[in-house]
Design a protein that fits this description.
The protein is built from one helix and ten strands; from the N terminus they run αββββββββββ. The protein is an alpha+beta fold.
Length: 180
């Protein structure tokens, strides 16, 4: 019996690289490679320009606590907070083992005729590359002083930041109007 060539199974042909097949393969590989190159170049430029940011780097200095006058026990503490990092941070709270009761963040505003008002705030922003300088005319830490504090005493505080964690510092007790 003779099998016609139409009914005969085709023999597998070996794959041969042709100019067209090579060109099509290179073009198919070129698109993802070009997209990766563009993305990498864009990210490199973004990071090089400082836009990627860096974590907040918080330092706290110039801690001072006003010595209360007379029978008053309520007073205020002040700090200078510097953020040398590339991301904003927030001061969430201030605590102290040497303070009786709770220390709170307060913001004072002048109301005219030498009058001021104070209100408790939940937190205070510390901008990237910026600082937060506490003062009697702005943000401070309101607290109850220990009756045994005298000028020159150092009081321990812990400042709690959203990203910067906890920073422990000492604040010097000073009379209002004196430099710390």
């Amino acid at each position: 019996m003779t099998v016609s060539t139409a009914a005969r199974p085709a023999e597998p042909r070996a794959w041969r690289p042709t100019r067209r097949r090579i060109t099509d393969g290179l073009l198919a590989a070129l698109a993802p490679i070009a997209a990766c190159g563009v993305a990498l170049g864009g990210l490199t430029t973004w990071v090089g320009a400082g836009n990627a940011g860096s974590p907040a780097r918080i330092t706290v200095t110039d801690g001072r606590v006003f010595l209360p006058y007379g029978e008053a026990r309520d007073t205020a503490a002040f700090f200078r907070v510097v953020n040398s990092g590339g991301s904003d941070d927030r001061l969430l709270k201030v605590t102290s083992s040497a303070v009786r009761g709770e220390a709170t963040l307060s913001r004072h505003r002048m109301a005219g005729d030498n009058a001021a008002s104070a209100r408790t705030v939940e937190s205070a922003g510390v901008p990237a590359g910026g600082s937060l300088a506490m003062s009697p005319f702005g943000l401070d830490v309101t607290l109850r002083a220990d009756p045994e504090w005298v000028a020159g005493t150092y009081v321990p505080f812990t400042l709690h930041f959203e990203h910067g964690g906890r920073i422990e510092v000492q604040a010097k007790v000073v009379r209002p109007g004196e430099a710390g």
